[in-house]
Design a protein that fits this description.
The chain has 318 residues and is mainly α. The protein contains 13 helices and two strands, in the order ααααββααααααααα. The N and C termini lie far apart (40 Å).
Length: 318
């Protein structure tokens, strides 16, 4: 059984490499060295960073909060990060720099802190409260985002559509260099947490009895989530449901052990964003469909199914 995740990881890695190479040469424009290096190259690398970051964040949130419906976009982290990034740019920071990245991290961290503090009861986050708090924080951040974009003189804030639906169309190497360090650090933190998350899945009491500091594990996981998601959102906008769908799909194939789950989810998330981004720029040419809209169209119906299953497994939400 242990060889199954390893084989799947190798297969996914080979597929990701093939799709990434294909994405460099697939497009409506002539395939020149300049286009590959300056336009498609950074876009492919950003897709790898965003896809793996969102998928890892989903695994960490679901594992640390013991909530199968946790997703960065659904609980307000992505909206808070977008607001923080736009606020930093509106105050004079350059787009896709360390200052805008830190603004996005601050916004994502505040949103996550608000949602989790509201949802925790008896030291355990409640599913319904988490989702309702996430809806409220997302709506509030979205409203402030609209106001900031409307009054800002900075062209870097672009449009509400970009921030709310997500797109890799304006990705540059500068954006990649801004996002990469945060995702790498977040991924490094997540790689050290597999065993702790396995123990945490037994419940808080059992984890404490086995010597795991539950609060410390949750704080580390949520810090990693902010790093994995926020800066990416500040560069490409909100891409929803990746952190929800990918871990569930991988868990159905390989089981709940977090070591393989983290690795394979990162590869699967990368593959999903690579395929979706490539499709978004070639299917409806000359119009480019926002990648966040595609993931939402696919993810929303599956989210409804997961809600019904989770409610049934918990005996209803009175």
């Amino acid at each position: 059984m242990r060889s199954r995740p390893a084989a799947l990881a190798v297969i996914l890695l080979l597929i990701v490499i093939a799709i990434a190479i294909g994405a460099l040469y697939i497009g409506v424009a002539d395939t020149t060295t300049s286009i590959i290096w300056n336009i498609r190259g950074p876009r492919v690398v950003m897709a790898i960073l965003i896809g793996s970051g969102l998928a890892l964040a989903g695994v960490l949130m679901q594992g640390s909060l013991s909530n199968p419906l946790a997703d960065p976009a659904l609980v307000g982290v992505s909206a808070g990060a977008a607001l923080g990034g736009v606020a930093a740019v509106s105050l004079g920071a350059s787009f896709n720099t360390a200052f805008s990245a830190l603004g996005a991290c601050a916004g994502g961290a505040i949103a996550l802190a608000v949602v989790t503090s509201i949802s925790i009861r008896n030291r355990v986050p409640e599913v319904v409260t988490l989702l309702l708090a996430g809806v409220a924080v997302t709506a509030f951040a979205g409203a402030l985002l609209t106001v900031l974009v409307s009054v800002s003189d900075s062209t870097a804030t672009r449009s509400v559509t970009f921030w709310s639906t997500g797109s890799l169309s304006l990705t540059t190497w500068a954006a990649v260099l801004t996002v990469a360090p945060f995702v790498i650090v977040g991924a490094g933190i997540s790689a050290t947490m597999a065993n702790s998350l396995d123990v945490l899945s037994l419940g808080d009491r059992a984890a404490n009895a086995l010597g795991v500091n539950v609060s410390a594990v949750r704080y580390r996981a949520l810090i990693a989530v902010v790093l994995l998601v926020s800066v990416g959102v500040s560069s490409v906008g909100v891409i929803a449901f990746v952190g929800l769908l990918v871990p569930h799909a991988v868990r159905m194939v390989i089981g709940p052990r977090h070591g393989p789950l983290l690795l394979i989810s990162a590869l699967a998330g990368t593959l999903l964003i690579l395929v979706t981004d490539t499709a978004s720029r070639v299917v409806a040419n000359p119009i480019e469909v926002p990648i966040g809209a595609i993931t939402a169209v696919v993810g929303a119906p599956i989210f409804f199914i997961l809600i019904r299953r989770t409610r049934a497994s918990q005996g209803g939400w009175a």
